[in-house]
Specification:
There is one protein chain. By secondary structure, the protein is α/β, with parallel strands linked by helices. The chain has a single domain, classed as Response regulator (Rossmann fold, 3-Layer(aba) Sandwich). The protein has a 5-stranded parallel β-sheet, with helices on both faces. Helix 3 links the parallel strand 3 and strand 4. Helix 1 packs across helix 5. The protein is globular. The N and C termini lie close together (about 10 Å).
């Protein structure tokens, strides 16, 4: 099963950390990166993206706004909000848009449950 994950974060270092955790868990999955919400929307228009990992704190648009846009465009896409800002309000808002919540720094342990669920969801929607 070919899967592409989009990692959206305005920090290149954070994208590298998330990429390494992803590669440890799903080495056969490919990834695309975006440094902003605008770039992420361009990627979505031009490439097939199956899963999105989105930083909450970004300069132009916060990750929850982007997640809501992506949810409207791709209702079945597994989406996770990634942030060090662990507040109940942000977790609740992530759930409202149908996104999972992953604490920063992203580790393979922190990412494993979300990716397992995403893989299962993708298998059932593609079957």
């Amino acid at each position: 099963m070919s899967v592409t994950v989009m990692i959206v974060d305005d920090s290149k270092l954070a994208r590298i950390v998330a990429s390494k955790a992803l590669a440890q868990l799903q080495p056969e999955w490919s990834k695309v990166e975006a440094g902003s919400a605008r770039e992420a929307l361009e990627v979505i228009e031009n490439e097939t993206v199956d899963v999105s990992l989105i930083d909450f704190n970004m300069s132009e648009t916060d990750g929850l706004e982007l997640a809501a846009e992506l949810r409207a465009m791709r209702p079945e896409m597994p989406i996770a909000i990634i942030t060090a800002n662990i507040q109940d309000e942000i977790i609740a808002r992530a759930r409202e848009v149908g996104a999972a919540f992953i604490a920063k720094p992203v580790t393979s342990d922190g990412l494993s449950g979300f990716l397992s669920g995403a893989a299962l969801k993708l298998r059932t929607t593609r079957a």
